[in-house]
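Human: I'm a chemist; would you kindly supply sequence and structure tokens for a protein?

Assistant:
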Amino acid sequence: MLVTIESDIVPDSERRGLIGALPRAVRPYASLMRLDRPIGAWLLFWPCAWSVALAGLGENGFSLIAWLALGAFAMRSAGCVYNDILDRDLDAKVERTRLRPLASGRAGLRGAWTLLIALSLIGLIVLLQLNLTAALAALASLALVAAYPFMKRITWWPQAWLGLVFSWGALVGWSAVTGEIEVAAFWLYAGSVCWVIGYDTIYAIQDKEDDELVGVKSSALALGERTKAGVALCYALALLLWGAAIWTMRGEMLALFALLPVALHLLWQVATLRLDDSADALAKFRSNRFAGLLMFLACLVVSASL
């Protein structure tokens, strides 16, 4: 689709709110970072916070959580910039993404690479606050991050790869507190992977028609009419694995009741999900920032009782 008029290529998000208040020349790069859509940073952050909480917080638990929050913001923003650099030609063919800054030509490739380097330097500052084990764990995630944009071209389950990436903070946060990665951290990580597959499958419902047209794969397309059942299974596995993490730390049935609020929230998502309503899918996807908060509170409660 050819767009030449400025009003056709500048999305509403750059005319109002936080991005709209920025100088005009900066706005496309703020959009590259998804400054108007912080949900991705929240979803990357929560596994970090869970692991710090369940591992016992340590001496500087809440300051560590703050550093990890900054790291999640910087690296999620960097990931969006990197993804848009690689997908700029593909994005131009998809209705939902054709107005992204690189796809529409509002941002330059050199500026995007400069922004990516700047965000990576912020990530490096956060990395230097961690102990050696946690720093090495964080660096090990870069290979997964670099490969992610290619997954939707080669597998029907790019959401599974995203789960590996977005859950990695569970290993980083745990090792930042304890200096090692214990069994409970792996249970927490595995549960988060299932959670991510579930919520990103919901997100992919929005793009099914466009993905089919341009030949992009997704779990929502793979599952079709079984999407709700697939999401339900992912969420059930997430709860089971999170329960294993809690049981490893405190082997009492009462501790598992800490998961009840997040379990009810995930049940609500699945029960009310409408497969033919993109707006509903987006709302359910975004509600996972609240699911992440409920899981964080569960980890805090269990840790406080140890």
